[in-house]
Amino acid sequence: MFIFILMRLPLLILGFLWATSGQAGGLLVIASPAVPDAAISVKQLADIYSLKKTFWADSTRVVPVNREISSAERDNFSDAVFNLSPEELAEYWNRLNFQGKLPPLVQTSDQAVVGFVRSVPGAIGYVSGDSAPKGVKVLLRLP
Amino acid sequence: MQRNWFGKTIARKLLLAFFLIFIVTYLVTALVVQSAVRTSVTDSELATLSQLADLKLGTLNTKFEQLATDLRAWTKLDVMNDLASGDVDKRVENTLENLQKDYGLKGEIYAFNAAGHLVASSDRQHHMDMLPDAWKPHEKVSFVNKHVNPEDGEEVVALVAPVMAAFSTQYQLGTLVIAYPWSDVMAGLPDQTLLLYQQRAPIKSAPSNPLPDAPSDIENQATLSIMGSTLGTAISNESLFELAHLRGWIQIGKNQYLVNSASENSGLLSGWEVVMLREPEALYQTVHMVILKLALLGLILTLPLIIAIRWSASRLTAPLRQLTQFVSDINDTHDLSKRLTLHSNDEIGILATNFNDMTARLASGTQAHREAEARLRATIDNALDAVVQMNAEGIVTGWNDQATNIFGWTREEAMGHLLHEMIIPVSYRESHVRGMQHYLLSGEGPILNSRIEIRGLHRAGHEFPVELAITTIKVENEYEFSAFIRDITTKKESEALIWKQANFDKVTDLPNRHMFHDRLEQEIKKAHRAGLQMALFFIDLDRFKEINDTLGHDMGDILLMETSRRIRSCVREADTVARLGGDEFTVILSEISAANNIERLAQTILKILAEPFQLGDEVVYISASMGITLYPNDADTVEDLLKNADQAMYVAKNQGRNQCSYFTAALQDAAQERRHITHDLRGALAANQFVVYFQPILNLATGRIHKAEALLRWQHPTRGMIYPDGFILLAEETGLIHEMGDWVFKEAARWVKRWREYAGDFQVSVNVSPIQFLSDELSCETWSAHLREINLAGESMVIEITEGLLLKAAGGVTDKLLKFRDAGIQVAIDDFGTGYSSLSYLKKFDIDYLKIDKSFVDNIETDANDMALSEAIIVMAHKLGLEVIAEGIETAAQHKLLAQAGCNYGQGYLFSKPLPAEEFEALLKVPMQLMAEFVLSGVADD
């Protein structure tokens, strides 16, 4: 079962990336100012949210923050980064959850995401909009 | 009899004692029971409190553990991630509200973010921004603490749990706190229960909020106030501190409480403690009930007990009361005949029996005492002595019949009067009173308990001698005197008479020899002390014997009386005139000064005695010879003085009488001589110094030596030959005469035995001293036994005695003479004619020979009278069947005359002087013929 999922994973990621790249309005990937990286790639972002990359360069733990499954930002984010539907991603995280890996935690608003990221070191999240909120660093803009 | 309710009777004493014992015992028991109950109630209450405290603490623990578990679960909720975002979406707040509602939680829930800001709470009304320091979790563990809610000031128990990020165990999202109301906690506890808690160490040591390391911190003020209100009294921190871990009693304010507690050592409530208090009133209801019951029981028991004790005590002491009554009766009535009947076999019974015995003895004793008293009274009344009793004041208290007899006062008159005024002569009264007072003061009385002789006073006023013995007895500390008095008038008189008889001459009333000795001794002492001279006269009347014999003893007595009167008239009162006996008088002249006084007095006495005496119708002339000796010149002892005076008197007598002679040095020498001779005489016999000489006695008719007279000679070693005249008297005085007489007899016997071989009828005559003859020591049997021993016939021996011996005719002389005759020993009368020459005794006694004294023989040639006497004697003797021996024939003429007169035998110097035995034997061997010629030639010559 695991082998099957892993075999299919690159395909999913590829499709996901594809789907989001053409989308307008965009999302800002923000992180705690303590994070050492100034910018990350989509690929790096995907690694983080697929729980493959768990530490920053300074060895602090990466704390990814998600939006609730029903939100447009998550839908956009899933599509833009993974080219997958949120439900498909949720299923993926559930499976990882069984393996003992904690899925990205959920905040239910942009303010909440910003507040969380700003206060939790190593935290990374995404919010809608173009302008960067205060107290966080923008690592990537997603279309 | 005094009666007193309290303790006077044994029954009451017993009752009181028993009752006291009961009360004490009961009280002690009650106290012990009460104490035991109290202890037991306390213990059980303490156990109850402990259990209760445990239970409550357990309940609390469970409750808080549950809450803490819930709280920890709630921190794990995903929504808690929102604490990091500040709960902008109010999800946490909603969640807390729901939880409070769902769990029915009494307190509020507070959520703080990592920075400590309050993010959400179940109470929307909160005003708290920041997490209080006290609630800050430590080491990311949950804990419980009591705290004042800073939000509203309410006292709460805070359960604190950290909210850790699910994504990182290192990351704390915030803190979740349940503030549980303290009142709710307390509401679950019973009254008078304290819940104590202890601050967790980390909090206490938190530098930001340092808290005191004791339950007295600010937080416990709540506890204090709660407890204070619960107990209704203010409680100090110290009290609180004491309460922890306390078990037992504690004083809080004015009240005492029983305290027990339970504490939690681990878990959330570690350091918490439940202290249960109990008020004593509630506690001791049980104890009070017990005491009440005991008191009631005591009361119920007391009444029958009193009755029982009263009854038994009364029963027990009934015999005692009986005894007491009995004794009182006897004491009141003095009736000792009563007897107590008491049927009891215990000690009281024995006491009663003994008491009866005692009473009986007392009764008999009293009776005996009365009888003894009566006997004593009778004895005293009939006593020969007067018995007079007197008390310490000198008043007569006893007076027997004899006292009446000798003093003249009757018993009635005497009793109650002063003794000394009645029977003590005036001159003795003062010393009597003084002596008695002295005795009463000092207890010393020299006249007590001894017999003394004093003067008594008769009622009639005359005094008389009494013998007195006084004894004292002390009766009830008072002296009593008993005097035994005897009238010794008669005794005194007879004593005086006896004394006079012993000391005075009956005839002359002069002191006798005995008295004279005493006086002389006294005078010697007196003179010795005074250094004076003293003279002793020894007066012997001349020819008194003749007067006595011729005129009779009565006349002799008159003469003696007159003599004594005359002598006394010459001397001073102080001089002693004594009669020594017979016609011997002495005069002691004391304290003389000049010798001529003595001479004058001596001459006066001689002169006055030479004056004629008128004796009845006769006028008699006598004279006196006087010896005088002086003290201390001549001698200084009674014996020597007397002897001296006696000797001097003899000198006077020898010098022709009617004169006085002084004791001289010559007399002194003679006396000395006598002493020496006496001394030598004692050893003479043993020293063989005596020799027997024999003088031949011839038959005047035939001229044959027919007999011999044994004559004793003393061959003195220094003085030469001493004749009997020189020592016989001394031998008689010293008693040596017996030994010497015996010796002479045996010596004579020895020789006569030998000489009888030449002449078969030869005889030896031995002189026997009158002293020896009269003495009991002379025994004819001894001599005759000796003769038998040497086988010699009695006829061989003749004893010569003087006629004076026969005159005395004392008892025994006749017997002795008879015994000699029976033994064949013949008897010759020596010196016949010189004495009284009574013819009667010649007839009366068995005499064999008469020896005519030399004094007759001497004169027969010249004096016709003497010749006639001699012839008469010879004739008379022959008529009476006696033979005659003439002594001292010195001339042939004498020999011739006597031979012609018919005298049988003769002895004398004409024939031979006394010869020693050997020479005599030689003479005896001369042929008879030769001797006869010699003798006859002498006759022929004349």
Range of strand content of chain B:
15-25%
Uncertain spans of chain A, ≥5 residues at pLDDT below 50? 1-24
Characterize the quaternary organization of these chains: heterodimer
Helix count, DSSP H or I runs of 4 or more residues of chain A? 5
Brief write-up:
Chain A is α/β, with parallel strands linked by helices. Chain A is 43% helix and 17% strand.
Primary descriptors:
heterodimer; A: 143 residues; alpha/beta; 5 helices; 5 strands; 43% helix; disordered N terminus; B: 942 residues; alpha+beta; 5-stranded antiparallel beta sheet; rod-shaped
Written account of the structure:
The complex is a heterodimer of chains A (143) and B (942). Chain A has helices at residues 2-21, 42-49, 72-82, 86-98, 110-119; strands spanning 27-31, 63-67, 105-107, 123-128, 137-142. Residues 1-24 of chain A have low confidence and may be disordered. With 143 residues, chain A is α/β, with parallel strands linked by helices. The longest helix of chain A has 20 residues, at 2-21. Chain A is built from 5 helices and 5 strands. Helix content of chain A is 43%, strand content 17%. In chain A, strands 3-2-4-1-5 form a 5-stranded mixed sheet, sandwiched between helices. With 942 residues, chain B is α+β, with helices and mostly antiparallel strands. Chain B has an 8-stranded mixed beta barrel, surrounded by 5 helices. In chain B, strands 2-1-5-4-3 form a 5-stranded antiparallel sheet. In chain B, helix 31 (892-901) links the parallel strand 29 and strand 30. Chain B is rod-shaped. At the A-B interface, strand 3 and helix 5 of A face helix 2 of B.
List the helices and strands and how they pair.
The complex is a heterodimer of chains A (143) and B (942).
Chain A: H1 2-21, E1 27-31, H2 42-49, E2 63-67, H3 72-82, H4 86-98, E3 105-107, H5 110-119, E4 123-128, E5 137-142
Chain B: H1 10-75, H2 82-85, H3 91-103, E1 108-113, E2 118-121, E3 143-148, E4 155-164, E5 172-181, H4 182-187, E6 193-196, H5 201-204, H6 220-231, H7 237-243, E7 248-252, E8 255-263, E9 273-278, H8 280-283, H9 285-333, H10 347-381, E10 386-391, E11 396-399, H11 401-407, H12 411-414, H13 419-423, H14 426-442, E12 451-457, E13 463-475, E14 478-487, H15 489-503, H16 513-530, E15 533-542, H17 544-551, H18 553-570, E16 576-581, E17 584-592, H19 595-610, E18 613-615, E19 618-620, E20 623-631, H20 638-654, E21 660-662, H21 665-684, E22 690-699, E23 705-716, E24 720-722, H22 728-734, H23 737-755, E25 763-767, H24 770-774, H25 780-789, E26 797-802, H26 803-808, H27 813-822, E27 826-832, H28 840-844, E28 849-852, H29 854-859, H30 864-879, E29 883-886, H31 892-901, E30 905-906, E31 915-916, H32 917-925, H33 928-941
Parallel strand pairs in B: 20-21, 23-25, 25-26, 26-27, 27-28, 28-29, 29-30
Antiparallel strand pairs in B: 1-2, 1-5, 3-4, 4-5, 6-9, 7-8, 8-9, 10-11, 10-14, 12-13, 13-14, 15-17, 15-20, 16-17, 18-19, 22-23, 22-30, 22-31, 23-24
Helix pairs in contact in B: 1-9, 17-18, 18-19, 31-33
